[in-house]
Amino acid sequence: MLGIHELWLFVLSGLLLNITPGPDTAYIIGRSIQLGWRGGAAAALGISCGCLVHVLGAAIGLSALLMASSTAFTFLKLAGAAYLLFAGVQMLLSRSRPLTDVAAGNGATSLSSVFWQGALTNVLNPKVALFFLAFLPQFVDGASEQKPLAFLLLGAIFIFNGTLWCLSIAAFASKAARRLRRSEGAIAWINRALGGLFVYLGIRVAMLEAR
């Protein structure tokens, strides 16, 4: 169908990749501890939307164009690094708020911020584009005339499975961290950990080279 082959292997590979701990997992766990399941879910959905942008880019050829153009690659790389460093420093300098303040006042704004942070850290990361550009074609016949649709279908399957896994992580982390969320000190340390993670990712993205 659509030139897709070895779908079972793609699904299995995708599941193994999804359950492998990485920066996205750390971000979801951190937000789940801070804001509960809704915060973790917002982070997971933001990450999935960011991945969807790269799947669409791979399907219509934008990712290949990005990788072929050193100027475009460098621009996206520097934009992504700048955003990650800015967000990281902002988290490092932020003051923790009691969970009751979040729930009573600006919960919607906070969840929106969490969602867009998750989305932008993926959209502005050329490494994610490189991953989909390298991974999806492995399971599509080179002679197929339906490559864009095949990429979209495979990408949707990968993102769907990944989203389910990330939501389960958010639920587990939120339930396990109920006591931590009552401690402003713990929340402050989580902010610092997330801020450090973003700064680290920003440095890594800035050092990324096109291949």
Supply database-style keywords:
globular; mainly alpha
Word description of this protein:
The structure is a single chain. The relative contact order is 0.24. The model is unreliable at 98-109 (pLDDT under 50). Helix 5 (70-93) runs antiparallel to helix 7. The protein is globular, with a radius of gyration of 18 Å. Helices cover 79% and strands 0% of the residues. The protein is an all-alpha fold and 211 residues long. The protein is built from 10 helices and no strands.
Topology:
Layout: H1 7-19, H2 23-35, H3 37-60, H4 62-68, H5 70-93, H6 99-104, H7 107-123, H8 126-135, H9 147-176, H10 184-206
Short characterization:
By secondary structure, this protein is mainly α. The chain has ten helices and no strands.
Count of DSSP strands: 0
Write down the oligomeric state: single chain
Instruction: Note the beta-strand portion.
Output: under 5%
Q: What low-confidence regions span 5 or more consecutive residues with pLDDT below 50? A: 98-109
